[in-house]
Amino acid sequence: MKNKNILIIQNYNANKGDxxxxxxxxQSILNQDKSLTINLTSYNPVQAKKDxxxxxxxxxxxxxxxxxxxxxxxxxxxLVKEALWIVYSFIWLFFYKTFDIxxxxxxxxxxxxxxxxxxxxxxxxxxxxxTNFNSFPVIISxxxxxxxxxxxxxxxxxxxxxxxxxxxxxKLITKKITYFxxxxxxxxxxRERYSYNKLKGNKNVFLTAESAFLLHINTNLGLKINDFxxxxxxxxxxxxxxxxxxxxxxxxxxxxYINIMTEIFTEIIKKYSYNIVIIPxxxxxxxxxxxxxxxxxxxxxxxxxxxxxxxxxxxxxETASIIANCDIFVGTKTHSIVYSLNALVPTISISYQxxxxxxxxxxxxxxxxxxxxxxxxxxxxxxxxxVQKNKKYYIKIQEKHRLDVRKKAEExxxxxxxxxxxxxxxxx
Length: 428
Description:
Blueprint: E1 5-11, H1 16-32, E2 37-42, H2 45-52, E3 55-57, H3 64-68, H4 72-99, H5 110-118, E4 121-124, E5 127-130, H6 136-151, E6 155-163, H7 171-183, E7 187-190, H8 193-199, E8 205-207, H9 219-223, H10 226-233, E9 238-241, H11 254-272, E10 275-278, H12 291-299, E11 307-309, H13 316-324, E12 328-331, H14 334-342, E13 347-351, H15 354-362, E14 369-371, H16 377-389, H17 391-422
Parallel strand pairs: 1-2, 1-4, 2-3, 4-6, 5-6, 6-7, 7-8, 9-10, 9-12, 10-11, 12-13, 13-14
Helix pairs in contact: 1-17, 6-7, 11-12, 11-16, 14-15
């Protein structure tokens, strides 16, 4: 298979989990066929090009400039600009498909359209894009990004996604949009049975596994980071933890969530003399990401000397390596759990959604899951006590299942390569 181009769209690289998906996809796809060219539309194209070494452009319907605008007036201007572009893009698409006429493209979308045109397949990468955990405009952006590729006549694939849950005032319309997109996509792979059961009547849907389980983790990388190396050196026992600064709101008030996490951290330190490192999973340019809430928890602590926030904007490979160097890991953010399971660190999942629970189940450690809405010091410590006592056992259990999980994750690439073989030569 020569000179084939893949366009991976809607990469949200403000989040380390979404970024790790691209690292894993690039690594594993090119291992299958080094002749392939991969381009990207990303939330932050400049950073994406630097991080992934891939040519990158902005989303077809972009939110970055809207979200980061410093005034309401600038937000409005950016919103109107994107809205007008979407209307115009339908007109552009009509003339291109009906009359083979390429109308003028505004400069801020030139590269994006160029990537779409020269692609043989448009891929919506692994993540959690079709759910009401995300805002409705973002769901529209994801849907339009993949449908635009389909309407251009490209092969399309939704790659290792989670579908749902659907709830709230946009529940029905989100569900209808999601199922319309899935019906009109050539291949859809989902990363856990929760999603597959919703879609198993569709012949284009396949059950695989999370693509980031294919990520190679270099355990030495984290120890080259001075701040973490000091924490690790000064900690005979170290627990790594990620929190969620958004989704707790579906279950608790901010005050209650802080108090619960404070009680848990205090008990871990007091009972077992562990040190704790909180590991951010968001980059800091969105008002600090998950750092401000972490700082509030630490300020609420009695044993502040035993808990540290690792405050740097470390990339996913560095973050995964940091987690790999912990003695026990407690994850709320989904991809932090993926890193930990993959690195064979005894893992406890505080699951806000079924995907995390199923990832734990794939590694044979479902008993080490607690639902976020049921979180309390007592319920959590029952699990922590057991994991602390049986660390070597859980390492062996996770290792026993890792190869099978990775094989399932590779199925995503096998299906992608089959799809590329069916594609017609791209236009430019």
